[in-house]
Amino acid sequence: MSEQMNSMSEQMNSMSEQMNSMSEQMNSERPDNNSDVDVSNFSRHLNGHNAPIWWGIIGLILIELSVVSAFTVTYLYLYMQHPQWPPNDIPAPPLLIPTWSMILMLLSCVTMYLAGKAVEKNQAKHFVVYTFASVVMACSVLWIRWLQFGNFEMRWDQHVYGSLLWTISGFHFIHIVSAAIGLFGMAGFYTRQRQIGVVVDTMYWNFVAFAWLPFYLVLYFFPRL
């Protein structure tokens, strides 16, 4: 019995020595906690694909694209289900106001693109001019769209056509305000190092502008077919 206990004691001592050896080896391989980390190559201002906000705006655009697609498909489905569209002898909405709205939005895409190029080259004055032009056109579109709401000849709750017309127009109206980025540009906030805000806003503004194209077709051309 005594011999067995001695044998077990020797085994436990051997295991303890092995564990101590492993612990010493791990400690020797562990980096010194007090060692300095070189952060000279790190940057506070990430641009392009390296910036998390760039991927965030891509995700937002994909989500918004699904909403635009849902509105468009819903409108087309109801359009095909009704032999008369718009219903109840309602005349098709006038083309002049929404056409001007679309032209201004597409032109603002050009000025937003030029603003992005200007901030990339550190051309502050050009950046302010282009962003200011974008804001003016965006505000003009908002004003035109507001006038357009007053020209609708039906209430939003009158029938399904009225609901779609008001909902789609209102949905797009709300998204136009994203051009407010120009206010920060005029304050001198964005520079070549901090250009990611301009980049992502331009991406989103282009999406908002081009999202109006399918809405423009289904809301103002399909009722005339």
Automatic annotation (TrEMBL):
InterPro entries xrefs: Cyt_c/ubiquinol_Oxase_su3, Cyt_c_oxidase-like_su3, Cyt_c_oxidase_su3-like_sf, Cyt_c_oxidase_su3_a-hlx
GO cellular component: a single term: plasma membrane
Record Gene3D superfamilies: Cytochrome c oxidase, subunit III, four-helix bundle
Low complexity biased stretches: 1-26
Entry annotated with the keyword Translocase: yes
Gene Ontology molecular function: any one: cytochrome-c oxidase activity
Family: Belongs to the cytochrome c oxidase subunit 3 family.
Broadest EC class assigned to this enzyme: translocase
Sorted UniProt keywords: Membrane, Translocase, Transmembrane, Transmembrane helix
Domain Heme-copper oxidase subunit III family profile: 32-224
GO BP terms in the entry: aerobic electron transport chain
Protein topology in the membrane: Multi-pass membrane protein
Annotated CDD domains: Heme_Cu_Oxidase_III_like (cd00386)
Protein name: cytochrome-c oxidase
Subcellular location per the Swiss-Prot or TrEMBL entry: Cell membrane; Membrane
Transmembrane segments: 53-77, 97-115, 127-146, 166-191, 203-222
Region entry Disordered, spans: 1-37
PROSITE patterns named in the record: COX3
EC number assigned by the record: 7.1.1.9
